[in-house]
Design goal:
This protein has helices at 15-25, 40-58. With 59 residues, the chain is mainly alpha-helical. The relative contact order is 0.07.
Length: 59
């Protein structure tokens, strides 16, 4: 199950949210046909896209 938390700029997460994150760290990532593990080439492309996106945000 996926949970999403939206934290606004300057807002701190609640204790409950921090506990849920710590608990989630203990569980392994499970890949399936809808969410497959990225190949090394796809990881490299994804990393490059993130770098480009972050450069544009700073400008």
């Amino acid at each position: 199950m996926t949970k999403t938390f939206i934290i606004e700029h300057g807002q701190m997460p609640t204790e409950e949210q921090l506990k849920e994150i710590e608990e989630a760290k203990k569980h392994p990532i499970v890949f399936d046909e809808e969410c497959q593990e990225l190949s090394p080439a796809m990881k490299k492309a994804f990393k490059s896209a993130v770098i480009q996106r972050n450069r544009k945000k700073k400008a």
